[in-house]
Design brief:
Shape: elongated
CATH architecture of the largest domain: 3-Layer(aba) Sandwich
Radius of gyration: 24 Å
Number of helices: 15
Distance between the termini: 67 Å
CATH superfamily of the largest domain: RNA polymerase II accessory factor, Cdc73 C-terminal domain
CATH topology of the largest domain: Rossmann fold
Largest sheet: 6 strands, mixed
Strand order of the largest sheet: 12-13-11-14-15-16
CATH class of the largest domain: Alpha Beta
Strand content: 15-25%
Length: 395
């Protein structure tokens, strides 16, 4: 049987574009995408740079392409993203990516040519020096799961798995500077873990479950639900253009409608805003504050519970916003325990200070109010994901 062979150099971005233009089906099975005889992981990196730093994975681009082609609803798209553990596409990149994949444009400044060459060279098969060598390369081996694979396929999958692991654990801080983030969200917990290992109180081989139970605590969702508590979201005191304050918090967080708070006085507004939101089938009554001065009072110890109810904070980009917070001098530690957000206009660059914090960038357009709702959905999806994950408590 004659089989058309693909070139040894595989560019996942070009492969997806080729199949889109030619209206050929890309088949997803488990964590893989099949382009005819070519199999690639969802987490395979591409050369398309994110607006917020880092690179999109093949899965990110494929699912977005499916959304466009199938006219997928936003709710279904978010559910699919969560199900496949994909991050999705920044709103500002959507039109350009769609046009490129459909062949309406032939290039983009967002495609990193250097990264593209690295991806191509890393996927290039080594040329066979002789027929004997070629035979050894294509010799089939038996894997642990009983599946027959060629040595070449095995090596390629090992490479992709390594890249996938890096992409999962890497946290882009800016477009030029990155760092690898440990699975431990807290240096304090990590030191405690090492100390226990040294003292013989914990072993990684004999009692792995003890490590998890020592570090992780019940998720915020379960804790707040079981205790009947109201989650708290904190917003900046003063409204800045493209950002959020009490003035516009209720409309945006409850209805998905954005109104610029700059130069708007919220003194006549409610000092505490309440918003009802269903999270995983449970109706929570969220409280929104812009002043944390009353969160802890020596005369009223019960007020301390307010800090334990804080689940999210919209940052202004200024350090003084965290004055009065527990560990106010250690903002990264605060943003380990509370989900951080930075709301801005698409055409305003992210401040360096914010880019170095563990916050989610949520962007809105200046004059496209019909696009406020996707930003609203993005916020709640991110907050929900944070609330249902195990929380690391710090003393």
């Amino acid at each position: 049987m004659i089989r058309n062979k693909r070139p040894n150099k595989i560019d996942p971005l070009e492969l997806l574009r080729e199949f889109t233009i030619n209206k050929k089906d890309v088949v997803k099975k488990d964590q893989y995408l099949f382009f005819d005889q070519t199999k690639l992981e969802l987490k395979t990196p591409t050369a398309w740079k994110k607006n917020t730093g880092g690179y999109y994975t093949l899965g990110d681009l494929w699912l977005f392409n499916q959304k466009v082609q199938q006219n997928m609803s936003m709710k279904h798209y978010f559910n699919q993203r969560q199900s496949f553990a994909l991050e999705g596409i920044d709103k500002i990149d959507e039109d350009e990516i769609s046009n490129y994949l459909q062949g309406k444009i032939d290039n983009s400044d967002k495609i990193d040519q250097e990264a593209k060459q690295q991806l191509l060279s890393s996927r290039k098969s080594k040329p066979a020096e002789s027929s004997a060598l070629e035979g050894s390369l294509t010799k089939k081996i038996k894997t642990n799961d009983g599946e027959a694979k060629t040595v070449e396929m095995q090596q390629r999958e090992e490479y992709l798995n390594a890249i996938s692991w890096i992409m999962k654990t890497e946290k882009p801080l800016t477009s030029r500077t990155r760092m690898l983030r440990s699975k431990f969200n807290s240096n304090i917990n990590f030191k405690h873990y090492i100390k226990q290992l040294d003292e013989g109180k914990m072993t990684t081989q004999n009692n792995p479950l003890e490590i998890k139970s020592t570090i992780n605590y019940p998720c915020l969702f379960k804790d707040l639900r079981d205790k009947g508590l109201k989650p708290i979201i904190v917003v900046p005191t003063m409204g800045r253009t493209g950002n959020i304050s009490l003035f516009n918090a209720k409309k945006f967080l409850a209805e998905g409608k954005y109104e610029d708070p700059e130069n708007k006085d919220s003194d006549n507004s409610e000092r505490v805003i309440q918003i009802e939101k269903n999270i995983k089938g449970h109706n929570f009554l969220f409280e929104v504050y812009d002043n944390v001065g009353t969160f802890e009072s020596k005369n009223n110890p019960s007020q301390k519970s307010k800090w334990e109810r804080v689940v999210g904070v919209f940052v202004s980009g200024q350090k003084y916003q965290f004055k009065g917070w527990p560990k106010e001098d250690n903002i990264p530690s605060i943003l380990d325990q509370v989900k951080g957000f930075y709301l801005k206009y698409y055409d305003i660059p992210t401040p360096d200070q914010v880019a170095n914090w563990n916050v989610k960038i949520v962007s809105v357009y200046r004059n496209k109010r019909h696009l406020d709702f996707p930003a609203y959905e993005q916020f709640w999806q991110e907050l929900e994901n944070f609330m249902i994950q195990p929380r690391n408590k710090q003393k």
